[in-house]
């Protein structure tokens, strides 16, 4: 594919393929003109793109980039196809192609005949003239006028953004977020693009430069500062940063004097965009909205907290339990009955699932809690919670009605429940915690369960750890790992304590260490085959985990090797779709890498979330279409959706959070040294994804490095201080009332 954007005009000679659902088409056109003098070696050209209602004989304008097809030669991969409007026929086809509600062939014909070739300009300038046409009332006229205005806006925006090198899907996203005035907004301040997913500061800065914005413009400096903080939150998970760090990073990235950047920080503090706080380690800078959110979370948690007065005798608790409870388990059950808000934390094999069901049963029977809501951050975690309790469980995204495009909650009513229990709470980031607490009604009991020793949330913050460390709320710890838990969980407990796991286990153990010097993708394929053939675990129940994407034992190389071993060599297959360096084939296991809403054929909507795993069950490579089965939800996709998919035979340990698999192959190699130094939580989290069998592959030295925990750096957040401050304030108020 060439990078240069070209515009081709011509008439459709033959429609070779057309999808009525989404307008995707492959057509052969007779070329009338090509801008910039491009030669295509003849008067015919194949064009691929989207235009609803495209027909043979239609005059079109197509904007895109040339690609070389192995069989058909040079073609145009069109980002934008529009009907030309040189005559009445062009106007008629343009009206039909726009998909305007209620405008069919007859009405489109009457509009074209009444106003002629200048119909669209007349309607946009004088929309009331639509009333001259039989069958159009005020409401219909307003609808047609608005639709045409939107179409014109989209065309202008797409032309501008595609010319700047953005993909069609990103350009559509910009229009959805910024509306019909997107182009004027962008020209006034192109840095608003930096906050839109898939763009980033560098692209926005390039567009700003093309519009003549000076390097030292306040808008550029402030956008650069916002970007530095947002990127650091995304990459490192902190919610606040040393002021000097922000200034230095922004000055370097913007190539500006640090004094200019410091002035920008002062402006953003004064305008309320940033908040500065004094801490023992120096002045810390945070986005004001994040600082306010952390404070609100603290206030809401403490507003819900307090004793409920429910005191169930130990004998009745024991009678409910299917096993004899250990002392710490009994204390956790009593605490969850007594407290309106509490945290239960513990690793695998400590009995969290066992006491969860006991707590819910007793709350219903002894405390009169008729309605109980259960939730977890991921679909897999929600299903495990439902299996453990025999009750329905939702994902937090579904419960809170999170919009996949912007991450905001659209829920406007409180969760109707006497008790809300959230499992795998270590995965909940600051933003999700805010949405959750906004949706909880006063008087609702809240039980938070999670393993604080796992990796913190992918998103910014460490909400569970901050709640525990603040001392502001009741916390019940389950530390004892029962011997019947198996070697996987026993070894995980050793790592949690900073001790080397027992690597040399016998043949009956569910934990196996495969000592391999410099493991690579071939080493992993051999272990996966062993797990399939010897342990009887099917490939669909095996997950390979690696700390890094690159290296010989990284995610990318392992995915390519396992794809060839389990599905076939993509070089030998014609049934594939390629995006970047990855070929996707029928039967591939894939993971969604972005949240999105999907409209089903019946008009209803569903959502697929970042981290959802599925299998490609159908593929039409010629049409660029395929289907993915995400745990029974079959989603139709097109080539453009590949940008949000990756192969999933191997994923990072971070990506596996909240999931559990029958068999896990965990890579821990010296080549992963940088990641292994980030803390023992990494391998601990990876180990605890395995339910039946774990193969740890790598060198003993790598295992020792991973367990040593030499490089772990706690996240810098403001929630712990906010909780402690709010708790102290409530204590002071109580003391004043007592006096």
UniProtKB/TrEMBL annotation:
<dbReference type="GO" id="GO:0043139">
    <property type="term" value="F:5'-3' DNA helicase activity"/>
</dbReference>
<keyword id="KW-0413">Isomerase</keyword>
<dbReference type="Pfam" id="PF18335">
    <property type="entry name" value="SH3_13"/>
</dbReference>
<keyword id="KW-0378">Hydrolase</keyword>
<dbReference type="Pfam" id="PF14490">
    <property type="entry name" value="HHH_RecD2"/>
</dbReference>
<dbReference type="InterPro" id="IPR055446">
    <property type="entry name" value="RecD2_N_OB"/>
</dbReference>
<feature type="domain" description="Helix-hairpin-helix DNA-binding motif class 1">
    <location>
        <begin position="128"/>
        <end position="147"/>
    </location>
</feature>
<dbReference type="GO" id="GO:0006281">
    <property type="term" value="P:DNA repair"/>
</dbReference>
<protein>
    <recommendedName>
        <fullName>ATP-dependent RecD2 DNA helicase</fullName>
        <ecNumber>5.6.2.3</ecNumber>
    </recommendedName>
</protein>
<keyword id="KW-0547">Nucleotide-binding</keyword>
<dbReference type="GO" id="GO:0016787">
    <property type="term" value="F:hydrolase activity"/>
</dbReference>
<dbReference type="Pfam" id="PF13245">
    <property type="entry name" value="AAA_19"/>
</dbReference>
<dbReference type="GO" id="GO:0006310">
    <property type="term" value="P:DNA recombination"/>
</dbReference>
<dbReference type="Pfam" id="PF23139">
    <property type="entry name" value="OB_YrrC"/>
</dbReference>
<feature type="domain" description="Helix-hairpin-helix DNA-binding motif class 1">
    <location>
        <begin position="191"/>
        <end position="210"/>
    </location>
</feature>
<dbReference type="InterPro" id="IPR050534">
    <property type="entry name" value="Coronavir_polyprotein_1ab"/>
</dbReference>
<comment type="similarity">
    <text>Belongs to the RecD family. RecD2 subfamily.</text>
</comment>
<dbReference type="Pfam" id="PF13538">
    <property type="entry name" value="UvrD_C_2"/>
</dbReference>
<dbReference type="InterPro" id="IPR003593">
    <property type="entry name" value="AAA+_ATPase"/>
</dbReference>
<dbReference type="InterPro" id="IPR029493">
    <property type="entry name" value="RecD2-like_HHH"/>
</dbReference>
<keyword id="KW-0067">ATP-binding</keyword>
<keyword id="KW-0238">DNA-binding</keyword>
<dbReference type="GO" id="GO:0005524">
    <property type="term" value="F:ATP binding"/>
</dbReference>
<feature type="domain" description="AAA+ ATPase">
    <location>
        <begin position="338"/>
        <end position="453"/>
    </location>
</feature>
<keyword id="KW-0347">Helicase</keyword>
<feature type="binding site">
    <location>
        <begin position="349"/>
        <end position="353"/>
    </location>
    <ligand>
        <name>ATP</name>
    </ligand>
</feature>
<dbReference type="GO" id="GO:0017116">
    <property type="term" value="F:single-stranded DNA helicase activity"/>
</dbReference>
<feature type="domain" description="Helix-hairpin-helix DNA-binding motif class 1">
    <location>
        <begin position="95"/>
        <end position="114"/>
    </location>
</feature>
<dbReference type="InterPro" id="IPR003583">
    <property type="entry name" value="Hlx-hairpin-Hlx_DNA-bd_motif"/>
</dbReference>
<dbReference type="GO" id="GO:0009338">
    <property type="term" value="C:exodeoxyribonuclease V complex"/>
</dbReference>
<dbReference type="InterPro" id="IPR010994">
    <property type="entry name" value="RuvA_2-like"/>
</dbReference>
<dbReference type="InterPro" id="IPR041451">
    <property type="entry name" value="RecD2_SH13"/>
</dbReference>
<comment type="function">
    <text>DNA-dependent ATPase and ATP-dependent 5'-3' DNA helicase. Has no activity on blunt DNA or DNA with 3'-overhangs, requires at least 10 bases of 5'-ssDNA for helicase activity.</text>
</comment>
<dbReference type="GO" id="GO:0003677">
    <property type="term" value="F:DNA binding"/>
</dbReference>
<dbReference type="InterPro" id="IPR027417">
    <property type="entry name" value="P-loop_NTPase"/>
</dbReference>
<dbReference type="Pfam" id="PF14520">
    <property type="entry name" value="HHH_5"/>
</dbReference>
<dbReference type="InterPro" id="IPR006345">
    <property type="entry name" value="RecD2"/>
</dbReference>
<dbReference type="InterPro" id="IPR027785">
    <property type="entry name" value="UvrD-like_helicase_C"/>
</dbReference>
């Amino acid at each position: 594919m060439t990078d240069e954007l070209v515009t081709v005009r011509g008439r459709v000679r033959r429609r070779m393929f057309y999808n009525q659902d989404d307008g995707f088409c492959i057509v052969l056109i007779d070329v009338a003109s090509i801008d910039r003098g491009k030669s295509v070696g003849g008067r015919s050209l194949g064009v691929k793109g989207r235009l609803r209602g495209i027909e043979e004989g239609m005059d079109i304008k197509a904007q895109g980039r040339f690609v070389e097809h192995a069989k058909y030669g040079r073609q145009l991969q069109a980002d934008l196809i529009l009907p030309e409007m040189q005559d009445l026929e062009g106007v008629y086809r343009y009206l039909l192609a726009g998909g305007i509600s209620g405008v069919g062939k007859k009405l489109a014909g009457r509009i074209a005949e009444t106003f002629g070739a200048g119909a669209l300009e007349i309607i946009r300038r004088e929309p009331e003239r639509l009333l001259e046409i039989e069958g159009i009332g005020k409401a219909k006229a307003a609808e047609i006028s608005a639709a045409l205005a939107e179409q014109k806006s989209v065309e202008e925006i797409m032309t501008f953004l595609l010319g700047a090198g953005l993909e069609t899907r990103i350009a559509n996203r910009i229009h959805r977020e910024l509306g019909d005035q997107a182009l004027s907004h962008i020209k006034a301040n192109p840095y608003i693009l930096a906050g839109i997913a898939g763009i980033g500061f560098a692209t926005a800065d390039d567009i700003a430069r093309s519009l003549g914005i000076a390097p030292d413009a306040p808008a550029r400096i402030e956008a650069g500062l916002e970007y530095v903080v947002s990127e650091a939150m995304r990459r490192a998970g902190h919610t606040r940063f040393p002021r000097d760090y922000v200034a230095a990073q922004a000055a370097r990235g913007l190539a500006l004097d640090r004094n200019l950047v410091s002035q920008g920080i002062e402006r953003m503090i004064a305008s309320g965009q940033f908040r500065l706080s004094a801490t023992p380690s120096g002045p810390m800078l945070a986005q004001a909205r994040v600082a306010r959110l952390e404070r609100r979370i603290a206030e809401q948690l403490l507003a819900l907290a307090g004793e409920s007065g429910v005191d169930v005798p130990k004998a009745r608790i024991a009678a409910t339990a299917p096993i004899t409870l250990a002392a710490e388990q009994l204390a956790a059950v009593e605490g969850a009955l007594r407290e309106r808000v509490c945290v239960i934390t513990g690793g695998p094999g400590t009995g969290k699932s066992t006491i969860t069901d006991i707590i819910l049963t007793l709350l219903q029977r002894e405390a009169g809690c008729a309605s109980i809501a259960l939730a977890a951050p991921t679909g897999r975690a929600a299903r495990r919670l439902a299996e453990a309790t025999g009750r329905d469980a939702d994902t937090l995204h579904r419960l809170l009605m999170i919009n996949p495009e912007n991450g905001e909650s659209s829920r406007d009513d409180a969760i109707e429940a006497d008790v809300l229990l959230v499992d795998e709470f270590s995965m909940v980031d600051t933003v999700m915690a805010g949405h959750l607490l906004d949706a909880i009604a006063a008087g609702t009991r809240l039980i938070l369960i999670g393993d604080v020793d796992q990796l913190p949330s992918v998103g910014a913050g460490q909400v569970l750890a901050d709640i525990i460390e603040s001392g502001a709320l009741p916390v019940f710890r389950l530390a004892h790992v029962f011997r019947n838990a198996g070697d996987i969980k026993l070894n995980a407990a050793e790592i949690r304590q900073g001790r080397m796991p027992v690597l040399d286990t016998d043949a009956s153990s569910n934990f196996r260490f495969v000592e391999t010097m410099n493991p690579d993708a071939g080493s992993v394929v051999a272990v996966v085959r062993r797990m399939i053939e010897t342990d009887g675990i099917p490939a669909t129940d095996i997950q390979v985990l690696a700390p890094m994407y690159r290296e010989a034992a990284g995610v990318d190389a392992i995915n390519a090797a396992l794809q060839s071993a389990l599905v076939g060599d993509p070089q030998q297959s014609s049934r594939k779709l390629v995006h970047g360096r990855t070929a996707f084939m029928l039967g591939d296991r894939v993971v969604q890498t972005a949240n999105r809403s999907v409209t089903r054929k019946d008009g209803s909507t569903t959502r697929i979330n970042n981290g959802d795993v599925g299998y490609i069950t159908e593929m039409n490579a010629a049409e660029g279409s395929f289907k993915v089965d995400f745990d029974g939800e079959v989603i139709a996709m097109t080539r453009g959706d590949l940008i949000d998919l990756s192969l999933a035979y191997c994923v990072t340990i971070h990506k596996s959070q909240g999931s559990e698999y029958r068999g896990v192959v965990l890579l821990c190699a010296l080549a992963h040294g940088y990641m292994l130094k980030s803390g023992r939580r990494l391998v601990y989290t990876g180990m605890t994804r395995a339910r039946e069998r774990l193969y740890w592959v790598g060198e003993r030295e790598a295992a020792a490095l991973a367990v040593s925990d030499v490089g772990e750096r706690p996240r810098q957040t403001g929630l712990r201080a906010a909780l402690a401050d709010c708790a102290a304030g409530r204590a002071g108020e109580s003391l004043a009332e007592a006096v």
